[in-house]
Amino acid sequence: DMTLGQWFRGLDVEVVHEEGFHQAEPFNYHEDLLRASGTPVSFHRFGARLPASAKAEEVAAVRQKNWRSWVETYFSPPGNETARPRPKEAGEL
Q1: 89 to each of 24, 48, 50, 54, 92, how far by Cα in Å?
Q2: 0.70 exceeded by the pTM?
Q3: How far apart are the first and last CA of the chain?
Q4: Which residues does residue 21 pair with via DSSP β-bridges, in sequence order?
Q5: Of 4, 46, 50, 71, which residue is 20 to 30 A from 64 by alpha carbon distance?
Q6: What digits encode the pLDDT tens for the residues 9-44?
Q7: DSSP string covering the chain, please?
Q8: How far apart are CA 85 and CA 30, in angstroms?
Q9: Phi first, then psi: what are they for 72, rounded to 5°?
């Protein structure tokens, strides 16, 4: 996204910051940050590790499955603005 920002700046295209874009998976963020950032738009990384030979359809299916799992685990259903607390990861107090 930093490279995109540089390209857009070079083209005189105004870019705005959107809190819904995240650099990593939801479990890498504190629950208060996720709650405060509003509706998630994107997470740049996906938890799936697939071989380079995986078909695009397989990759898309795994990413969609991860996204649905994250929504269920970390974000509230539509109409309810309070995010659910995230489960503790191994080693967390």
Answers
A1: 15, 17, 22, 28, 6
A2: no
A3: 33
A4: 42
A5: 4
A6: 899 988 877 777 777 777 777 888 777 777 777 776
A7: -HHHHHHHHHTT------TTEESS-GGGS-HHHHHHT-S--EES--S----TT--HHHHHHHHHHHHHHHHHHHSPPTT--PPPPPPPPTT--
A8: 9
A9: -65, -40
